[in-house]
Design a protein that fits this description.
The protein is α+β, with helices and mostly antiparallel strands and 147 residues long. The protein is built from 3 helices and 7 strands. The protein has helices at 23-30, 41-73, 95-104; strands at residues 2-5, 18-20, 36-38, 76-81, 114-115, 124-133, 136-146. The strands form 2 sheets. A 4-stranded mixed beta sheet has the order 4-7-6-5. A hairpin with a 2-residue loop joins strand 6 (124-133) and strand 7.
Length: 147
Amino acid sequence: MKVILCQTVKSLGERGDVILVSDGYARNYLIPRRLAWEANEKNIRRLKEEKRKEGEKDEKILRSAVTFASKLDKISCTITVKTGESEKIFGAVTSSDIREALISKGINVGKKDILLDEPIKKLGVYTVEVRIHPKVTGRVKVWVVKE
């Protein structure tokens, strides 16, 4: 029997796949647990419509992420740190410090979304990438100045 998977089933396939399974397995396990639909014309049209709606939703999210990234590119934040005699920073500027500076500007991003290879340990201007979407990253200028 041909069925369309409603959810990802570990040993069978991904959501939306049309697969061939035994009649008993489909009728007694997959369909009652709502893991699959019978692959008839009505359900195939239903699957195509769901994929189309999902694609439109993903495209809308991607467009908003690109808009947000362009907004981020125009923003710079200043972080003041304590320094010693030779302008050496006590401690380091981390992604959580950058996140707090961005929150004070009205931009809420996750600490893990700030892509900082290693903490900033010198004064200066840095360009830091911020992951907004798996396909979109924005850049923020971070000014590290002494107190």
